[in-house]
Structure formats: C-alpha cells, structure tokens
Design goal:
Length: 252
C-alpha cells in the first residue's frame, strides 16, 4: 500500500524551478532516505509533502488521516528560549490558535512522559533546553512529533552537527520507530543512508534515483551532485564531495 504518492510534481519560485516533474511512491512502513546537494530541492520537497507549498504542476497524495510528524533541524531551533523539555514536547499537541494560559490535559502530560521514557529522556523533563546536548535536543524534537501519534515521520537532517555516537543513537531510534511508522529522512550522510534505510531518493531538481537497491554507486552520486564524488570505505561508506575539475584537471 502506498501511503504517499507524488505525481508529476513541479514547483517554481518565480522563474526558478525548484522541483522538476517529480514522481515517487512511498509505501506504508518504508524508511526512505533523500539525498542531494544544497539547492537541489530537498526542503521544497519536504514542504510539498507537508502541504506548505502548492505545486505549479502535479499533486501530492497522502493516504492517511493522521497528521504528519515533522522534525526540523535542531540547529534551527532557538535554544535560548526559556522553556523546559516537557513543555516543548507538549507543544506538539497544540492545534490552531493558542488560548491564553492554555492548560494541557493530564492525558497529554501522561503521554508526553510515556514518550520521554521510551526515548530515554525522562530525566530531562524539567531541564531547560539550553542545557541539552545536540543529541538530547534532537530526541526532544522527535518526542514533540511523536506526541501527535503520526503514521508518517519526516525529518530534516536529524543528525546534522552531531558526533558519531549521537548519530548512531538517533538512527537506531528511527529504525526502531520504523517498526510501525513510515520514516522519511533528508540527509547528507551517505554512510547513514546506506546503513539504515530501505529505499533512497537522489534529488537535484529532478529525481535521479529511487528503488529498493540502496547501494549508491559513484556514478549515481556524481549524477546527483553534478561533480566528482569520492567514495571512501570506512565501514558504512561515508563520502566526500570534491571540487569540480576542468578538462585539464585543474580545480574550478
């Protein structure tokens, strides 16, 4: 069963094409990784899936009645805002306009505590978010999405700026959540993509690759990034994007 269907999706900003005739079908329970260069349309694709952008051509079909759980990059989250972990998670329960002095139900608080226990962050429930590490804050943002009880989770660079141990911890968590949720992750980490996901979509305005084979070849990556890519094997096959070279071999 396809839980998401993207058909002939084209999105333009004025005369600039951000997405060009994108077609992709995402199955229920799939763990999809989306990779591609900066400016390749990954954020626009996420906004289209979330219904925040109306396409110029084509459509996005979401075959699920529940809200989509969205986890932004934690580096874009204002960590100086004076708010506790529990309160951040409860924000996921707010719908529409926020009433002054809004009080959450006990069932909401109990649900938030249940999620915190499952993610191993309950001990931080009363801690200010400014006191959290990057990995801890990322778990809090995941918890905020989970309290909506979504069928679909969309995460934008969930391990950006995290150390290797935190990356592994976050992706092991996502793999566990994938047991009963559809997961879509945007990432620059090809090593992670190869290690955890079921399918991969390579995006640079056009969708260059999508299928059940998650083994990314050097040629596939070069087609996507538009420049030479060096694959360096260190277990999970991380990569390094090299400078574009001219015909004489000089860097451009």
């Amino acid at each position: 069963m396809n839980i998401i269907e993207v058909n002939n999706l084209t999105v333009k900003y004025d005369n600039v094409t951000a997405l060009d005739d994108i077609n992709i079908k995402i199955k229920k329970g799939e763990f999809l990784g989306v990779i591609g260069p900066n400016g390749g349309g990954k954020t626009t694709l996420l906004k289209s899936l979330l219904g925040l952008i109306k396409p110029n051509i084509g459509e996005v079909k979401i075959n699920d009645h529940r809200p989509i759980g969205y986890v932004p990059q934690f580096s874009n989250f204002d960590r100086t805002f004076p708010i506790k972990v529990l309160d951040v998670i409860l924000l996921g329960k707010l719908e529409g306009k926020i009433k002054f002095l809004h009080r959450f139900k006990n069932t909401d608080i109990n649900k938030a505590e249940e999620i915190m226990h499952s993610l191993g962050i309950y001990k931080f429930r009363n801690r200010q978010i400014s006191q959290l590490s990057g990995g801890q804050l990322q778990k809090v943002l995941i918890a905020r999405a989970l309290i909506m009880e979504p069928e679909i989770m969309i995460l934008d660079e969930p391990t950006a700026s995290l150390d290797a141990n935190s990356k592994t911890e976050i992706y092991n968590l996502l793999k566990r959540l994938n047991e009963d949720k559809t997961i879509i992750v945007v990432s620059h980490d090809v090593g992670v993509i190869n290690s955890y996901i079921d399918t991969v979509a390579c995006l640079n305005k056009k969708m260059h690759y999508h299928g059940d084979d998650t083994k990314l070849s050097k040629r596939t990556l070069e087609n996507v990034y538009g420049c030479p890519v060096e694959l360096i094997a260190h277990g999970n096959t991380p990569h390094r994007v090299l400078h574009v070279h001219d015909e004489e071999g000089e860097e451009i």
